[in-house]
Amino acid sequence: MALELKQHLKMSQQLVMTPQLQQAIKLLQLSRMELQDLVRTEMTENPLLEGADDPDEEPVQSGESPAEVADAEATAEPKPAEKAEEVKGEEGSNEIDWDQYLDHYQLQGHTAPSNRGMADEDLPGAESNLTRKADLFDHLAWQIRLSSITPEEEQVALLIIGNLDEDGYFKMPAVEGEAEDAAPRDPLVRVAFETGVGIELAFTGVLELQLAALDPIGVAARDLRECLLLQVRAMNADTPEIVGIIERHLRHLESKNYGAIAKDLKISVEEVVKAVKVISRLEPKPGRAYSGDEAQYITPDVYVHKMGDKYVTVLNDDGLSKLRISGMYRSALKNGQAGAAKEYIQDKLRSAVWLIRSIHQRQRTIYKVTESIVKFQRDFLDKGIAFLKPLILRDVAEDIGMHESTVSRVTTNKYVHTPQGIYELKFFFNSAINRTGGDEIASEAVKNHIKQIVAAEDPKHPHSDQRIVEILKGQGIEIARRTVAKYREVLGILPSSRRKKYF
């Protein structure tokens, strides 16, 4: 059988991810802080980019754009900006009106508010920027150095506090090469080995740390039982009942199975409740007050203000540099002074134009999406979370003429300041829950109802999930018990057996 070669012509359509489109998509899903970092990086790497509010540089001339400069002075024309379905520049033109971009960046002409206009109580305190919060190690090391101990004991003590986790527990990392399934060893054995002191001194060192009433009490414990016992001993409250509960019945204490505790300790339930009152005042994580977690302040990407009967959307440009092309390099291209570096400058020019256009398109898209959300969620803005309407990405995408994936990228890690508070844009998209009258209610509104029901319940007789279902049904909300349990877990609400208060 002979082999035969044939040629066929075939026409097909396919989407090509151009560099400009890839960059635009990347910018869409960046958070505000990530965008600021990217802009700073690009300004460092691209000499043609500069901040628009730099007083030392020549401003962009009226009616002149970087694209025009490149067309007039370059021997090789810059590649035209590729168009895409969702992320694209102006139709039929590669030129950017820089004066309009710099002077009228907001679509509606409104000026974004700055931090100077915020109330004093909304701003972080000055001490949060001027001082560093002392961590647990520094706090304990200061106390150890003030104590009268030998150099060997100080060495042991510093090694111990240097291996405390964020909760204040003494945890030594596993030895290199040690099998993962090996039986856990007492960390004090490691302390003795690494410091070169005897095991007795290591044990004495941790015991002295624990019993020296170091603040916070309970620090350097090896487990929860040891931590709680150290605290009750410091309080002189180490009664047989309390010690017995801590040593043998922490599991029953967590589930509030006081009957099992009373039966094992051969005491009454009333005595168990009395002991639990003391234990409830103890700190199970003594080091949490000195954790290194700093408060993260959210800066909204967009503001929604109510002016009269209308809501006005304002983009927040505060902290985002308005970019432009360097006047020096524009002049070099225009006057033919670029020389051998002309190709390099043209390449950086195209990159700068693409970046500026992509940022501008990103801001425009955020504005459009927010405007659409405001239109759909007008009742929420007026009355609160109970009036939040069901909304999906497709609704907004069809409203503004974009694809759902574009809306999804825009709403990720973007925040809006509303009269009801600061919310992530994703918050406004909720599934629908049927109501008795045929209307639908948003899932976030149902969660708010559950939160209110739990807040209003009798702590000594908390509502079960089935009871919450019945209460919601009385309010016209049809929902399954397992859905209530799921929403309760999302809200961080404990089951009824663990919410019950005995005192």
Structural commentary:
With 503 residues, the protein is α+β, with helices and mostly antiparallel strands. The protein has three domains: 18-79 and 89-111 and 296-429, no CATH class; 136-174 and 184-290, no CATH class; 432-499, Orthogonal Bundle (Arc Repressor Mutant, subunit A), CATH 1.10.10.60. Helices cover 46% and strands 6% of the residues. The protein has a four-stranded mixed sheet, covered by helices on one side. Strands 1-4 form a two-stranded antiparallel ribbon. Strand 5 and strand 6 (421-424) form a beta hairpin. Helix 1 crosses helix 16, helix 8 (187-195) crosses helix 9 and helix 18 crosses helix 19 (404-411). The longest helix is centred in the last third of the chain and has 35 residues, at 342-376. It is extended.
Summarize the model shown:
The protein is an alpha+beta fold.
Any key phrases for this structure?
Arc Repressor Mutant, subunit A; four-stranded mixed β-sheet; 46% helix; 503 residues; alpha+beta; extended
Percent helix: 40-55%
- End-to-end separation in angstroms reads 93 Å
Strand order of the largest sheet: 3-2-5-6
Overall spatial form:
extended
Unreliable stretches (pLDDT < 50, length at least 5) are 55-94, 104-117, 177-184
Whole-angstrom Rg: 32 Å
Query: What is the total tally of β strands?
Result: 8
